[in-house]
Design brief:
Elements (H helix, E strand, L loop, with lengths): L11 E5 L7 H10 L4 E5 L5 H11 L4 E5 L4 H10 L3 E3 L5 H10 L2 E3 L1 E2 L2 H8 L5 E4 L2 H4 L1 H9 L6 E4 L8 H5 L7 E3 L5 H6 L2 H23 L1
Parallel strand pairs: 1-2, 1-9, 2-3, 4-5, 6-7, 7-8
Length: 215
């Protein structure tokens, strides 16, 4: 069954760098087996676009998107490849407009209140706080929650296995992004069982955080 396009329902978004597109499908299936349904496959390598294409075609139950999108022409390319959302490391009016033209979910990267305002004034209500740790981390997100009560964030950059639960406990955080779920050495060794185990452990912690929120 194809996944929904609503990335806001996916609390764990692994940031994936692939150097061999042959790894894309087994990696996607390993993440799904551990309860992680969204994949941010970055355009940091030559294999990124082809990896997106293969996951979209062969693992339709995964919600595959692109990361490190920095140019308007990349939005057209990833949409054609089957990506259903796009993350950018920064804020750009040109990217915002191009995403609207391509009709693809776009989450701009922000680091300051001024960038949050600029993105919000273009209609964005979900944003990527990047690099989260450098921007102030949890303290920054708490501070942003006052003036920007209607904005939700996906912090990325410095988020790891030790702190992601504290980020997710914040009311204005809908998801966290990070590479700890997809360690480079595990991908290189094609240790898909390890990635499934890491995903399952993180998914269990997400469930505990959500239970705490509703308590």
């Amino acid at each position: 069954m194809p996944a929904s396009n609503d990335v806001s329902n996916c609390p764990l978004i692994p940031v994936i760098v692939l150097h061999d597109a042959d790894d894309a499908v087994p990696l996607a299936r390993a993440l799904l087996a551990g309860g992680v349904s969204a994949l941010e496959i970055t355009l940091r390598s030559d294999a990124g676009l082809e990896s997106i294409r293969r996951v979209a075609a062969e693992v339709p139950e995964a919600l595959v998107g692109a990361g490190t999108v920095t140019r308007p022409d990349e939005l057209q390319a990833i949409k054609a490849a089957g990506a259903r959302f796009a993350f950018s490391p920064g804020w750009s009016v040109e990217l915002s407009d191009a995403a609207r033209q391509q009709d693809i979910v776009f989450l701009p990267g922000v680091m300051t209140p001024s960038e949050v305002m600029a993105a919000a004034n273009r209609g964005h209500r979900a944003m990527k706080l990047f690099p989260a740790a450098v921007a102030g981390g949890i303290a920054m997100l708490r501070a942003l929650g006052g003036p920007f009560a209607g904005i939700r964030f996906c912090p990325t950059g410095g988020v790891d296995a030790e702190n992601f639960g504290r980020y997710l406990a914040l009311p204005n955080v809908f998801a966290v992004g990070g590479s700890w779920l997809v360690p480079e050495d595990a991908i290189r060794a094609r240790d898909w069982e390890r990635i499934t185990a890491l995903s399952a452990k993180a998914s269990a912690e997400v469930a505990a955080v959500r239970q705490g929120r509703s308590a």
